[in-house]
Specification:
The chain has a domain of 213 residues: Rossmann fold (3-Layer(aba) Sandwich), CATH 3.40.50. It is built from eleven helices and 13 strands. Helix 5 packs parallel to helix 6 and helix 7 crosses helix 11. The radius of gyration is 19 Å and the shape is globular. The two termini are 36 Å apart. Bound molecules: nicotinamide-adenine-dinucleotide and UDP-4-deoxy-4-formamido-beta-L-arabinopyranose. UDP-4-deoxy-4-formamido-beta-L-arabinopyranose (WQD) binds next to helix 7 and strand 8.
């Protein structure tokens, strides 16, 4: 059974990916400092997957512990979710963000080279496309970012490209996620923001459950069909399966292939008001909202071309917006306070 080191595996996307890895016959080993997650998530994954999850409480900034971990396991690949992800916070704490996301990744790559583990799947983001010149977004479009979080993802991509050129044994897939939402069908694991949510879907679901009074729709004067921002929302379970497909691609290649960026999106755009009405329609919950000014740094529209993921990985997203809403609501209504009792 191939062992996969999953950094950040206790987090939102990581926890869902563990289930798919186990289903596909891999042996995940989680390495997470729990700075933005709960060990309860791993207990629940263990219940869903009917097996214990190997867990190392550790920081990717701790090189000695990383080296010890690699000396104790023979990893086939690393899936690197660990990192900080709040755009606004990254503007206030750039050093913390570059430290965790860039220096943390460098540590990991150094140890991987030392232990000759050369298959790497990186959590990148659609944020590396900045404000795209055309839609849908293809992987060869120019990259730019507007905040330290986005910069940290772009810097890591540059590092990975250089590494792949210098060390021909590496196979690196940079998965550029669009907007992950939804939750496992069990309703026992899901996204659990530690504070007031920044992102749209957790905000909607917290309004629906009565924790927040109303949603502010950030701008209705964009150049989009209804004036509100358009994004490519993707079910987190589809996203998780994309990681298994990436490992499958690595396994199928006879030779290391260097650096390959791949979008994980549905290829469909949904506006803020469309997402709100889909949520209301599918869950029967009220979501009061007001139109508010635009949020600084937001773009009008962003959605993926998913052609490359289909061609290379044989992967396409299956779940629609209605299913994303229903699964989010099941998690939120069963766990109004997330993993906190
Ligand atoms: P998350 O915060 O739920 O998960 C990240 C996990 O990494 C957490 O469990 C956290 O405790 C851990 N972590 C953070 N810093 C660490 C460190 N220094 N050492 C060890 N563990 C550490 O976030 P998520 O939504 O699951 O995102 C996973 C990855 O995907 C992140 O790299 C994020 O930037 C990227 N991403 C997320 C989104 C999104 O909208 N959720 C979109 C694009 C890309
Ligand atoms: C979606 C739409 C908002 C909240 C961010 C990061 C990006 C990536 C995903 C990690 C926009 C609108 C939102 C609210 C609203 N993360 N909105 N009211 O901005 O596409 O991307 O998360 O890589 O890097 O920037 O996602 O969910 O914040 O916003 O009207 O209370 O919802 O204006 O149009 P975004 P989001």
């Amino acid at each position: 059974m191939k062992k996969i080191l999953v950094t950040g595996g206790a987090g939102y996307i990581g926890s869902h990916t563990l289930i798919e890895l186990i289903k596909a016959g891999f042996k995940p080993i989680v390495y997470d400092n729990l700075s933005n997650s709960s060990p309860i998530a791993l207990e629940r994954v263990a219940k869903i997957a009917c097996q214990k999850i190997d867990f190392i409480k550790g920081d990717v900034l701790d090189k000695a512990l990383l080296a010890k971990t690699f000396s104790e396991h023979n990893f086939f690949a690393v899936i690197h979710f660990a990192g900080l992800k709040a755009v606004g916070e990254s503007v206030d704490k750039p050093v913390t963000y570059y430290q965790n996301n860039v220096a943390g990744t460098l540590n990991l790559l150094e140890i991987m080279q030392q232990f000759n583990v050369k298959n790497f799947v990186f959590s990148s983001s659609a944020t590396v496309y900045g404000d795209p010149a055309a839609l849908p977004i293809t992987e060869d479009m120019p990259r730019s970012t507007t905040n330290p979080y986005g910069q940290s993802k772009l810097m890591v991509e540059y590092i990975l490209e250089d590494l792949a050129k210098a060390d021909k044994d590496f196979s690196i897939i940079s998965l550029r996620y669009f907007n992950p939402i939804g939750a496992d069908v069990s309703g026992t694991i899901g996204e659990d923001p530690s504070d007031i949510p920044n992102n749209l879907m957790p905000y909607i679901s917290q309004v629906a459950v009565g924790k927040l009074p109303k949603l502010s729709v950030f701008g209705d004067d964009y150049d989009t069909p209804d004036g509100t921002g358009v994004r490519d929302y993707i079910h987190v379970v589809d996203l998780a399966k994309g990681h298994v497909s990436a490992l499958g691609y690595i396994e199928r290649q006879n030779n290391p292939f260097g650096f390959e960026p791949i979008n994980l999106g549905t290829g469909r755009g949904t506006s803020v008001l469309e997402l709100v009405s889909a949520f209301v329609r599918t869950t029967g919950q009220a979501v009061p909202y007001v139109i508010a000014p635009r949020r600084a740094g937001d773009i009008a529209a962003c959605y993926a071309s998913s052609d490359k993921a289909k061609a290379l990985l044989g992967w396409t997203a299956e779940f629609d917006i209605g299913r994303m809403c229903v699964d989010t609501w099941r998690w939120q209504s069963n766990n109004p306070n997330g993993y906190k009792a």
